[in-house]
Design a protein that fits this description.
The complex is a heterotrimer of chains A (501), B (496) and C (120). In chain A, 77% of the residues lie in helices and 2% in strands. With 501 residues, chain A is an all-alpha fold. Chain A has a domain of 160 residues. The two termini of chain A are 28 Å apart. Chain B has a domain of 175 residues. Chain B is globular and about 70 Å long. Chain C has 120 residues and is mostly helical. Classes of the chains: A mainly alpha (501), B mainly alpha (496), C mainly alpha (120). Chains A and B meet through helix 16, helix 17 and helix 20 of A and strand 2, helix 5 and helix 6 of B.
Amino acid sequence: MNTPQVQATILIILVPLMFSYAIPLLGWRWRGSAFFVALAAIGASMVCSFILLYTVLTQGTIHYHLGGWLPPWGIEYVIDPLNGFVGVVVCVISFLVTLSSKESVQKELPDKKVRFYTIYLLLFTGLMGIVVTGDVFNLYVFLEIASLTAYALIAIGEDGAPLASFNYIIMGTIGACFYLLGVGYLYIVTGSLNMADLAKLLPPLYHSNVVLIALAFFLIGTAIKMGLFPLHVWLPDAYTYAPSAVSAFIAPVMAKVMAYILIRVMFTVFQPSYLIEMVPVASILSWVAAAAILVGSIMALAQKDLKRMLAYSSVSQIGYIVLGVGLGNKMGLLGAYLHILNHAFMKGCLFAVAMALMYRTGKRNIFQLGRIHRRMPFTMAALVIGALSMIGIPPTAGFFSKWYLILGSIDARNWVFVAVILISSLLNALYFFRVIENAYFEGVHGHSQKEAMDGIAKVREEVPLSMLIPIILLAAGILLLGLFNERIISGILVFALPPGF
Amino acid sequence: MEMVCSYKPLLAILVSLAASALILLTGKRPNLRESWTILAAGAKFLIVLSMAPSVLNGQILEYTMVTLTPGISLQLRVDALGLYFGLLASGLWIATSIYSIGYMRGLQEHAQTRYFFCFAIALSATIGVAFSANLLTLFLFYEILTISTYPLVAHKETPEALAAGRKYLAYLLTSAVVILFSIAYTYHLAGSLDFVGGGFLDGRGTPAALSLLFVTFILGFGTKAAFMPIHEWLPTAMIAPTPVSALLHAVAVVKAGVFCCLRVIDFVFGPSLLSDLNLWLVLCYFVSFTIIGASLLALAQDNLKRRLAFSTISQLSYIVLGAALITPSALLGSILHIAFHGFMKITLFFCAGAIFVKTGKENISEMNGIGRQMPLTLGAFAVGAIGLAGIPPVCGYLSKWYLCLGSLEAGEMIFVLILLTSSLLNVAYFFPIVYRAFFKKAEGGDPARRAEASWWMLAPILACALMSIIFGLNPDAFIRFHQIASLAVANILGLF
Amino acid sequence: MIEYLMSKYNYWIYVVLMMIGFYAMMGKRNLVKKLIGMNIFQTAIILYYISIGVKKGGTLPVVMEGATRAADYVNPLPHVLMLTAIVVSVSTTGVALAVLLMIYRRYKTLEEDEILKSMR
């Protein structure tokens, strides 16, 4: 089909790419325009993503051949319901977070704004490219675009940011190179780089060791990039020391896109039956994920820095997604998909709140928050909603992804996973309520700060609207997504399941 | 029974949510803010009451909101048991609101906006629990109830209050996790979570699996119902202001826990399944331990509110004992006791609060001769105490009578003995208080001037005490509790 | 055994190179040495790809007169892919060097242990 809507497939990457060239040009003359150009580009992509999802759901999978070359000789962009869904999630969260970043970037990096938004927009381009492409090598290219820009953005933070970025460079490159090796092995045995083509060519070769090694390389490489325990070591430092706007962008979005790569490789390039029956990869993944869930939550308990706590919490939540993928049944996979959406909103909201706190108080220490809800009531209300969602209190969104994961675990007769999910909910409650206690009440260690804060605390001093509105929208989104999650499940996600589920 | 679609259940829940938003907005003008609470309480009670005629005629009012997951919706259904609990909670909210105003102003408490805000949300959640049509909706409102009562428990913001709040959350969130597992497993076994009178789990799983499920359900909901040994949060939570203790911990939160237990016993498992599995007897012994144990512990408490807390723990287990005996009279007695205990206990808590506001005294050993100072208050206290001990004409004797009848019907004499022993223990720990108040000389030789608490507090105290007596003489007075309860029993036993 | 090693010598070379690079990244404490290790690692992969495209008797994959059959040329696709990968490698090195400059300016050293010590 060649309707105009199909063009949205290429526009979704082309617009941010072109606009990212425009930012330095325009910004040389008008410094303030950088933000608006970036926002406009992401907004355009967001519109494209809605168009794409709608077209996919009504008319079926979209195939876009770059340059008119037919696959498998040319590069093909494929949008199916899973793609479309992840694309919408990434675009919406990116838009809201970018909107909220304006004041924060102005405060933390005033003289680097133009260069910041250029690289930022390139990061967005890379992530969207990963989402829409149907070619494994093309995915590597976009993966590297996204990674390089992320390295650069993280490095301009404070404190230990350059070192954190360097560690991320080393580990991330290993991950990407492993992915490349996987691609190479598959190319040797099949001669093709197109995902759909590989899916056709691989089944007769499943007994071969080369394919097995390729799968192993893919999984390890993606796991490093995602931050799956035990390959998560770069993640806490990177999320903590990056500038607030960068953390707020990378944390909700990037890990989800990497999880998407995992799902694509596992279920589209390789058949589910290979992964669940022939080679017990899915069950190994699910056990690793269960460990990730527990370790992430336990490490988060030990943190004093809010962003570091949220980073370890992310490690734990990525574990949920991989657990859902690894369970290998319908409920588990639906839970994983739903959690991609929910966690993006939850972490987006929480990191945006952290950004707001940094903007207003310059502090990240949980125990110094004393009674901040008087100054920033709406922001703290959003924090409470985000926290309740992470713990899994209905009707917030977080509860429903946990519900599906628990049902999936019971279906798989794996009671250990049920226990792990439930225990991690309690651990989440522990560290989030500590933050809430400190924000709303005196805080256990806050007695000496009481005098200092009392004078400031009485004045209502919220963050600027451009930061507040996205925070409120994200928090409202958490509630709405929870109440209406059934529409999402039956309207979009059941179509994104691989055949045979 | 016919199902009628009606928006009234939704309205009942929304009216206090709307009030909570208005309370938040008008925080700076106390009189306006308080009036929202009273208006909402009155409106809620009238809405719930207006549903009573239809339900008594055999209709069931239903309202479906959104589908939450494929196959389960956020659905409200008003049947007899739900209506009963809804009437109790909304009716007593009126009394508590008036009392709260007197209490908070009498002590000039801080953060009153947050207090009334959380109270309104907690009541919405309670009515939501009462009117839930399936386990998932129940769980949703149950969790909202837990979260909204946390700021109320930690209201004082002292380190002890914060620690009490933490303990409260620790117990209740852990139990929530256990309940979540139970609900998920129920869905896995049965494919549905809707409440059906007489249970829907029959034949859905092996006896071992069903027994394990029952145990996890009872442990989960039982934390809120304060069974021993998971009761410790309730005495610790007495650090909250007295109106909070009164409504939430004597009526709404713990009664929600007991209500959920009843829903599980009668509408998920059902009497026949439980007698097949012989689980009813196990549950009876389990709660009997609480009945006696809590009464014994109550004897040892000097703090008045803590003594009342242990008394509540003991009385709650009466309700579950009645449900566990699964005979018609026992079920009737158990349901009746939900309301009757509510009225009597709230009177006692109100009195404790009034004493604290007027004299600052919390411990029984300090309360010599207080009856001369506050005769009306302590008179109401005496009425409540008489009722809880099971002495006519205060309503407590009626539910005890049915419970004893029920245990005879079940053929187990031992529970009659346990009930009678508990009554004696009740006398043992309540009457000394009354005796001290009226017949001992005040310490320090204070002149016994009459100085009651303000009318804001005194009126609800006297009203609730009076209602307790009226219910004892005519259990169908005003709100037709007896009739509704009988209808609920018929629903459960499938006799309709 | 020797035959097994000799027939797949390209794979063995690239594995050895990759492991050298990997060891440098993980085992060395100096940040520049880690970077060099990363470069060796990436180069090993590039070599591997090129080596799998080789054909017996094939020549450079640039169109020439006289060679018209596909069997005359080495497989060009890996070469093209690796052009991209080289670009990626160079850019990563560029970014890493920039970051190293920032680290050096801040901590005056490029030894990882000393940096970690000064951060505490």
